[in-house]
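Q: What structure does this chain adopt?
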Amino acid sequence: MGRLFGTDGIRGRVNSHPMQPELVLRLGLAAGQYFRNGNKRHRVVIGKDTRLSGYVFESALTSGFCAAGMDVFLVGPLPTPAISFLTRNMRADLGVVISASHNPYMDNGIKFFDKDGFKLADSVEDEIAAMVTSPDFVWKSPDHDQVGRARKIQDSPGRYIVELKHSFPAGMTLDGLTIVLDCAHGAAYRVAPLIFEELGARVITLGIEPDGLNINKGCGSLHPEVLAAKVREHRADIGLALDGDADRLIVVDEYGAILDGDQIMAVCADEMMAQGALAGNTLVSTVMSNMALEVFMQERGGRLLRTKVGDRYVVEEMRKGGYVLGGEQSGHLVFMKHSTTGDGTLAALQLLSIMVGRQKPISEIAGLLTPYPQKLVNLKVKKKVPFDTVPIIKDAVRHAEDRLGRTGRVLLRYSGTETLARIMVEAQDQALVDELCASLTEAVEAGLA
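A:
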């Protein structure tokens, strides 16, 4: 059956393993028992995005947690980072997000935050998973008068809005700026527009009419071309695209050019180094970040520290080394001074503060980094066999690396949430990238057939 938890919690097709109500009920029981210590009242915050199936899993989790003796605070549709914040703010023992992030509506997922707002370590997830999947596990149910209560918290959006506005420099406003904001019909559809409007911007909104089925559909960070067209149409200063749970950000400049997480990190790292605020002059990112970002940091006397894919691993490295800025090319950006997890709206505010402070357009600021040509192919696979155990794949990788030398990279990995092999090649020569990516894809297809 494989590991229950992937790189970002549990995720899958609704009503198929593992996203089945009966399993999610057991998940609530298991997590409730794991985090319940002693006789005091224990609390869990549960939030979700706008998927139709959120009602199913919200009810199942609530039943499990209450049966395990935990009180449940339901906050409704809110961004993933808002749940991280509210878990800390409300002194809860645990936070839970029901979301499949950038996936389509027919998928859903569940991820956890500990009392400090950090995603759970692999070892903790594995212990909880063992409780869920073991048919012989003995539940330590509380006495009948110690089961939990559930209630809705009405003011949670306002708490999050105030918290994010506090991350923006005091005395600075967004007066005079026109922002096009795409909320992907997702979790930020209510709160994100208000944040930018209250700071003074003129906000033109997209993706703020969720119906349970349209999350991420032709909009948001997966489809920034829609945002780009709207930015050009309205001659806006910047476009901001969030994903379904609003923990990632993709930016469009005033000309409609799309900027990914690497380019945003370069701008923020450059500003923080200039202010002496980048701890160890170190930026933390994953193996997916472009080589140009690594060169960019080196040229400025800094360094890029890489982790495996997943913003949780970026955060773990940041905590271990005391670093303050990290993220992923996909747009997960972590500003540890303000948050314990990736937050697309927070990242947008940090970028906007640089724009306003420098009084320069985003195209000029983001011109600091020109990414190397990079190509990524996602290949559907039946099973995830270690690449280095398949001779034809090993030979193809060795050949590609010999061709690239020190001027490019090859990366083969499996998706942590889907049955996909990801094949990535980057170099300074686009033709070489295309050639090597095609040969590697052919080798992987043949080797895993």
